[in-house]
Amino acid sequence: MAQSLAGAAEHASLSNSAARADTIRRAVQQQAQLEAQVDAVNAEIREFKSRVIKGDLGFKLSAWNAIYRVSQLEIEDRDTLLETIREGFAALHIGGVMDWVAAAETAARRGANGHAEPDEAARADGKAERARVMAMGDGAERPQRRRGRPRKQRSETGAEA
């Protein structure tokens, strides 16, 4: 008996195993309740995004997620990110006209409906260049192609044997 009491003293966790089991059960219940609350909030967020972001604003969720993430950054981090994006877009020629003044000037040159009159000089140059390239050809007669799978060519030495 003394030996079993000494062993219990060494392993204090074993002497209160009933209390630990009770704590484990309470922890499991509490975590399950919290996860149920998280699931309810996530469902509410999904419904909000569907109704407001997609419906009212007409944004794609991927675009909205980018906007939201940038809005949550600190001001210095946001400025750094936007400068990096501008530099990357400029290097990759992504985004077209990013300057509102240049866009307005371009629209004014095109007219009210965004239509530009065709450039006849460029059209004539294009037709002349096409004719020049077509006239060059590849300098060789093109063999007539047969339909179907190509046949093996017989070598002259194989035909004589």
Structure description:
The chain has 161 residues and is mainly α. The chain folds into 2 domains: 1-72; 74-114, no CATH class. The chain is built from 8 helices and no strands. The longest helix has 40 residues, at 17-56. The chain is flat.
SSE topology string: HHHHHHHH
Strand content: under 5%
Number of domains: 2
Count of DSSP-assigned helices: 8
Give Rg in angstroms.
38 Å
Mean pLDDT: 78
Report the oligomer.
Answer: single chain
Class computed from helices, strands and strand pairing: mainly alpha
> What is the makeup of the main sheet?
none
Number of strands: 0
| Helical residue percent band | over 70%
> Low-confidence stretches at least 5 residues in length (pLDDT < 50)?
none
Give the overall shape, derived from the CA principal axes.
flat
The N- to C-terminal Cα distance equals 105 Å
